[in-house]
Write a structure and sequence with these properties.
The complex is a heterodimer of chains A (161) and B (293).
Chain A (H helix, E strand, L loop, with lengths): L4 E7 L2 E7 L5 H8 L18 E4 L2 E4 L12 E3 L1 H6 L4 H9 L9 H14 L5 H7 L11 H18 L1
Parallel strand pairs in A: 1-5
Antiparallel strand pairs in A: 1-2, 3-4, 3-5
Helix pairs in contact in A: 3-6
Chain B lengths: L6 E4 L3 H11 L3 E4 L5 H6 L7 E4 L9 E4 L2 E5 L4 H6 L1 H6 L1 H7 L5 H4 L4 H7 L5 H8 L3 E6 L2 E6 H4 E3 L2 E2 L6 E8 L5 E8 L9 E10 L2 E10 L6 E2 L13 H14 L10 H20 L11
Parallel strand pairs in B: 1-3, 2-3
Antiparallel strand pairs in B: 4-5, 5-10, 6-7, 6-10, 8-9, 11-12, 12-13, 13-14
Helix pairs in contact in B: 10-11
The chains are: A alpha+beta (161), B alpha+beta (293).
Chain lengths: 161, 293
């Protein structure tokens, strides 16, 4: 039973049928079988947050989920959020505020930030910090990232007011 | 790193999972949310031959309150506990503690049963179960057993569960009148494993503890239900009474050294938590005058 198993899921709105080994994690499945390399692999044990994706609408660590566990699920990666324009303003705010340097953590940061902004329209800096506490950035020292998220929240709030 | 190869089966019922566990015994590991198991497998700390995925067993999910008992299915996720109005009303200690369990992306997958069965001595939920005087319900081929939380945790990653049993649910008594709780932990980063922590549940009548369960974690090989707490029950708490309890606590703890903290630092932090906890539970800030807020 260590042989490949069939899975069927939806990734960024497209139906995917694949054969995967049980040991294959979701991050490697997305990157290597689907060539969706926006999902990054950092620590591979759930600490760094670079591999954050959405499964059934909720953010998860794709390094801590097996591809076989996503059978029947609906997965969204940074490519999906980026192509749909869902995070366009966040991406612009990150660029504007220099909230990225090497960019390795950025996809995970955007996933976590968008998750927070969906739940809380006007988070304060402490709430932003707490929601991003599971995402490491080794370049920016975090302040710029928090600035960018705070700005996006403010602009979105204005838009709907 | 990546997990070593293993065979995988998606259990279709609790009975099916128990059959698989009987067939593979300690060569198998149960996968629920995977937020402790997967890191251990990716780090090759463990390489089970067989994974029994119980993630689809809806019957193990959910929170129910009946007749003064809160029943929580083993597959109930941390995020479900965090946002449950029933938990906030009847076991508020748990609501407060869950916010310290890892990070949002991990709380979306991690389960109560998984955390308890994993039994990391630095994790929050085992300590809460002991503080709340929970009963842990496990099932094997022969039927169900009910185990008091205080007897369930046996050591580092060790519990009373046999390799052929499955953790099914936990039961907590509904928090009574005059019931108060306290939770605090010291960690390097919000959501990291604690360096030292305290989960406490108490009954207070006229500024006196009539019942007090102080459970320290990350300071021993399992959650420690402090015997020192008995010194604070049915007595007016004064600084000398608290100091005596603090010395008694220091005597009974046997913390370990690691890269995060020395045993002496952990012992010190436990004493700080005792003073802060007692002061907060009684709502008497003066009791913690020397301990900084």
């Amino acid at each position: 039973m260590t042989a490949p198993m069939p899975i069927s899921l939806e990734v960024n709105g497209e139906r995917v049928d694949a054969q995967v080994l049980p040991r294959l994690n979701l991050a490697d499945f997305l990157r290597e079988q689907l060539q969706l390399t926006g999902t990054h692999v950092g620590c591979e044990h759930g600490v760094c947050g670079a591999c954050t994706v959405r499964v059934n609408g909720e953010i998860v660590r794709s390094c801590l989920m097996l591809a076989v566990q996503t059978h029947g699920a609906f997965v969204q990666t940074i490519e999906g959020l980026s192509d749909s324009g869902e995070v366009a303003d966040l991406q612009a705010a990150f660029r504007e505020r220099n909230a990225l340097q090497c960019g390795f953590c950025t996809p995970g940061m955007l996933m976590a930030a968008q998750d927070l902004l969906k739940q809380q329209a006007a988070p304060d800096r402490e709430q932003i910090r707490e929601h991003l506490s599971g995402n490491y950035c080794r370049c920016t020292g975090y302040q710029a990232i928090i600035d960018a998220i705070e700005t996006t929240a403010r602009v979105r709030g204005r838009g709907t007011a | 790193m990546k997990a070593a190869a293993f065979a995988y089966a998606r259990a279709t019922s609790v009975g099916n999972a128990l059959e698989l566990l009987k067939a593979y015994g300690d060569r198998a590991k149960v996968l629920s949310g995977g937020q402790s198991l997967m890191p251990a497998m990716n780090l090759r700390l463990i390489s089970p031959e067989f994974i029994v995925d119980i993630g689809e067993l809806a019957e193990l999910r959910g929170i129910m309150v009946t007749d003064g008992v809160v029943r929580i299915g083993a597959l109930t996720r941390h995020v479900d506990l965090l946002t449950s109005p029933d938990i906030a009303a009847h076991a508020p200690l748990l609501t407060e503690a869950i916010a310290h369990v890892a990070h949002p992306a991990i709380r979306n997958r991690g389960t109560l049963g998984g955390s308890l069965a994993h039994a990391d001595p630095a994790s929050e939920l085992p300590a809460c179960m002991v503080a709340l005087n929970a009963t842990i319900i496990v099932r094997g081929q022969a039927g169900e057993r009910r185990v008091a939380a205080v007897d369930f945790f046996k050591g580092i990653y060790e519990t009373d569960l046999s390799a052929e049993e499955l953790l099914i649910s936990v039961e907590l008594p509904v928090a009574g009148k005059n019931s108060v709780h306290y939770f605090h932990e010291f960690a390097r980063r919000h959501g990291d494993y604690a360096i030292a922590g305290l989960a406490a549940q108490a009954t207070v009548e006229k500024d006196v503890f009539t019942d007090l369960r102080l459970v320290f974690f990350a300071v021993g090989d399992r959650p420690v239900l402090a015997r020192a707490a008995t010194r604070l029950v049915n007595i007016t708490i004064t600084p000398p009474v608290l100091a005596a309890a603090s010395s008694a606590l220091s005597e009974e703890l046997d913390p370990h050294d690691d890269q995060q903290a020395s045993a002496a630092m952990r012992r010190h932090l436990a004493k700080v938590l005792l003073a802060r906890g007692a002061s907060a539970l009684l709502n008497q800030p003066d009791l913690n005058a020397g301990g900084r807020a």
